[in-house]
Amino acid sequence: MSSLVTYKYIRKNPDIMTYIKKADEALAAQGYTEHSFAHVEKAAATAGMILTELGYDERDIELAKIAAILHDIGNVINRIDHAQSGAVMAFRLLDNLSMPADEIATIISAIGNHDESTAQPINAIAAALIIADKTDVRRSRVRNRDFKTFDIHDRVNYAVTKSKLYFSDNKDKLILDLNIDTEISSVMEYFEIFLDRMLLCKRSAEFFKVKFCMKINGSDIL
Fold first, then answer.
1. Residue in 117, 108, 135 with CA at minimum distance from that of residue 202
2. Whole-number Cα distances in Å, 5 to 13, 103, 166
3. How far apart are CA 121 and CA 156, in angstroms?
4. Which among 216, 183, 176, 177 is positioned nearest to 199, based on CA atoms?
5. Fewer C-beta neighbours within 10 Å, C or N terminus of the chain?
6. What CA–CA distance (Å, rounded) separates 182 from 196?
7. Closest Cα to residue 81, out of 107, 41, 123, 113?
8. In this structure, are residues 158 and 178 in contact, taking their beta carbons and an 8 Å threshold?
9. Largest alpha-carbon pair distance within the chain?
């Protein structure tokens, strides 16, 4: 059964956009970094890029982008278990749009498996979403404008002056290339908060039989 539900349609659905906006507002009230449209749209673009580069078909790419734009809506309920609550919300939203059950199942499995505390790259959509989500580290995600009150998450994200994810020429490596201003945050601090996420990216890349690599300030780290 084919589906008429597209990423473009989801992106223009006012109810879904409201859930994304309100979820980010809930996180802002708790002091978390930005999880709004900039984050979910970047995650969608990155997940789409990964599957495109690896030769997946157009519908799989579309499903990955839909999963990515919906992946954080569960934060509107609570940050705790937001992947699981977001999957349930996505099921209801997509079912109401008459999306086929097999596509809904793929999307909600990816959403329900994206948070590092319980994440598993159980399918290509989930693996692409995990990598896309966990590699979105950038200065513009920091909401706090008072440098004196930065916590470690603020410092690390703010210190990242360049972030690029790309494949090697023969597609056997997926490389996260970062520039970190070590006057703001040390490389050690980056791994203090992101080590579990980077190891999860490594496992997710292995799903595709690709090696996940990191460069920081021009040096190979992983």
1. 135
2. 11, 10, 28
3. 26
4. 176
5. N
6. 21
7. 113
8. no
9. 55
